[in-house]
Amino acid sequence: MGIFRRPRDSSSPSAPAIAEFWAWWAQTKPSIEATLTDGLPTDILEEISRRIRRIHPQLQWEIGHGGGKPVLTVTGSGMAELRGLAERWRLAAPKGGGWDYHAARQADPEMLNQKLTLGDHEFDLEYVRLGMRADEARARVHITAYHPDFLFVPEENRLQVAVHILDWALGEDDVARWIGDVKVATEEPMDSLTPSMLSAVVQQIAEPFLEPNWLTGEGRTPRGHPARLDVRFPLHRPDHPLCDLHVAVSLPYAHTNPDRLPVGPSASALREFEKHLAALGDRAVLAVRETGDGLRVLHLYADPESGVVAELDQLAAGWSEGRAKVASTPDPGWRALAPYQP
User: Fold this and answer.
1) Read out DSSP for 11-73?
2) Interatomic CA distance for residues 82 and 234, integer angstroms
């Protein structure tokens, strides 16, 4: 277990750039709407890009249409580290005004039969086929993407086609939830399907996992005593977009069995502590429990701007079986969870 330094709950350093973007947008939106049909002028395109880059250099944006409205999407293009930032941008958007705003690309099945130009090559997407391998243990679908023109373009272009296809078939967040490995091929995979079938395959994989459960494993502590590990599964980053802060709550317990695992009053006290965590609602999610040698460590992901860390400090201060500790570190990509994933 690492040592984490706890920052105070505070506003995102990108908050001023987000506020400036929306103030500029309110002034410029009439000009944008007046030129949507014929295409945005270069100066407006460049200004939108400049202001989005001020929020974060790797954010991308696009304007489209959906449900009869113009749509502005700002996205991290699948980078988990940027999902929360894009969501904060969306939440700061003005209400109404005839536009929709999204923090991730939405599914757009009609695009699956269009043509996609990358560089100097045009791909007719009607010829795309996907090999789909269901991985029920990991609740994922592994993809092999094929197009006959992949023979004539570099690997980077092939992967770009695959990414566009997946986003249009499922939407960016469902790609993050349910798609595993993505490969490209210059020969059509056996039993391949059209991209329009991907949604149905994902639905079959996802159905048993719509309600998260806990996976339990056993091991040994550094002192050689039994240890227990409980991992919430599945746990999807897009379902908790504002939870950018990893929080470790360490709770020593006094009542143990000979294996140094909690029993009796300690087991009851630990369960009661977790009930308080559940009351935090969407502001935090419990991801992992590590138990052994008289110590339980709870790993949570929390919204750093919600005051959760201060509340956890208060809860820890009331723990009666030893000195509880709360430590946190920014982890918008949820990298601390990687060792615990199946």
Assistant:
1) --TTHHHHHHHHHHHHHHHHHHHHHTTT---HHHHHHHHHHHHHH-TT-EEEEEEETTEEEEE
2) 20
- Cα–Cα distance measured from residue 180 to residue 177, given in angstroms and rounded to the nearest whole number: 9
How many Å apart are CA 123 and CA 331, to the nearest integer?
38
Which position has the token pair 């750093």?
304
Residues 6+ apart with CB under 8 A from 91: none
Long-range Cβ contact pairs of 265-269 (< 8 A, separation 24 or more)? 266/321, 269/319, 269/320, 269/321
Among candidate residues 226, 239, 246, 216, the one with its CA nearest the CA of residue 326: 246
Per-residue pLDDT of the chain (342 residues; tens, 9 = 90+): 333 334 444 457 789 999 999 999 999 999 999 999 888 999 999 999 999 999 999 999 999 988 789 999 999 999 999 999 999 999 999 988 899 999 999 999 999 999 999 989 999 999 999 999 999 999 999 999 999 999 999 999 999 999 999 999 999 999 999 999 999 999 999 999 999 999 999 999 999 998 889 999 999 999 999 999 999 999 999 999 999 999 999 999 999 999 999 999 999 999 999 999 999 999 999 999 999 999 999 999 999 999 999 999 999 999 999 999 999 999 999 999 999 887
Q: How far apart are CA 145 and CA 142, in angstroms?
A: 10
* Neighbour count for residue 26 (Cβ, 10 Å): 11
Count Cβ atoms within 10 A of the Cβ of residue 187 and give its class: 0-12 exposed, 13-18 middle, 19 or more buried.
exposed
Total residues belonging to the chain: 342
| Distance between CA atoms of residues 322 and 308, nearest Å | 22
Q: How far is CA 87 from CA 91, 305, 329, in A?
A: 6, 13, 20
- How far is CA 123 from its chain centroid? 29
Tokens (6 digits) for 232: 């919430």
DSSP state of 222: T
Helix and strand element counts for the chain (H, E): 8, 14
User: Would you state the structure tokens that stand for residue 52, as one six-digit string?
Assistant: 């989005």
d(CA 169, CA 149): 20
